[in-house]
Amino acid sequence: MSTPTVLIHRDQGLLAKAVAARLITRLVDAQAARGTASVVLTGGGVGTAVLAELASTGARDAVDWRKLDIWWGDERFLPTGDPERNETGARKALLDHVDVDPSRVYAMPGPDGPDGDDPAAAAARYAAWLKAAARPEDHSPVPSFDILMLGLGPDAHVASLFPEMPALYDERPVVAVRGAPKPPPTRLSLTLPSIRAAKEVWIIAAGPEKAGAVRLALSDAGPVQVPSAGARGRQATLFLLDRAAAAQLPLGMDRLASP
């Protein structure tokens, strides 16, 4: 796994703009190299703000949206269109404003999907989609995503992998999470092995309530206790922070801060 790099921006607004610009550059580079690219989206306030910034910039047209595979790291097990779904927020902020190929937008199924009110079956279905998209050179049951974005909870959870939960021991690509400590209790989530398959993992956090979680995520803690400490990319791991979220960086990490 790669060693994390920390990049700090003055406030949440500038953070969202910077991450959006970085994402455009990375996707354009991937498409120039291979003709296609893949991204894993996250929800939450700052994750959705990044997508809104992406939609609002003219530079978004540098991305060939028809040749982009779009996945999610986790999802609340709620019906399509529910305002609490990460997919709903992503569509409103970005996907409804760009010319994506609907067949390449892989939303996680909800209870109104083909598996009904069975989150384990929905998780298995999503895992099958991932396996079908993986190439032999990925050496994994999931694609080597170009960019996998994650939010960070105050308890240091990422995706829907909460501390000490059974999903952290699971080797399957996607799992159903029951009894999540924040509502709604039922969710779908990529597991840590799937997250680690990504070329680059970006952990995005803003606000003083995230400062302790950032410190833990950059520590040597085990991933069962601190899931974000186990979220690393094959080639790069970026912690993209505002100053408030970076307030408790481990000793020595402050030298990596951007102006």
Compact description:
The protein has 259 residues and is α/β, with parallel strands linked by helices.
Features of this protein?
globular, 27% helix, Rossmann fold, 3-stranded antiparallel sheet, 6-stranded parallel sheet, alpha/beta, 259 residues
Please give a structural write-up:
- This protein is α/β, with parallel strands linked by helices.
- It has one domain (4-256): Rossmann fold.
- It has helices at residues 12-34, 44-56, 86-93, 119-133, 192-196, 211-217, and strands at residues 4-9, 37-41, 68-72, 74-76, 147-151, 174-177, 187-190, 200-205, 236-242.
- Helix 6 (211-217) links the parallel strand 8 and strand 9 (236-242).
- The model has no long low-confidence stretch (mean pLDDT 95).
What's the helix count? 6
Report the portion of residues in β strands.
15-25%
Shape: globular
* Strand order, largest beta sheet: 1-9-8-5-2-3
Assigned CATH architecture: 3-Layer(aba) Sandwich
Number of strands: 9
Q: Tell me the radius of gyration.
A: 17 Å
Structural classification: alpha/beta
Q: Mind summarizing the main beta sheet?
A: 6 strands, parallel
Mean pLDDT: 95
Instruction: Provide the low-confidence segments as ranges.
Output: none
**CATH class type:** Alpha Beta
Helix content: 25-40%
Number of domains: 1
CATH topology: Rossmann fold
Distance between the termini: 27 Å
Order of helices and strands: EHEHEEHHEEEHEHE
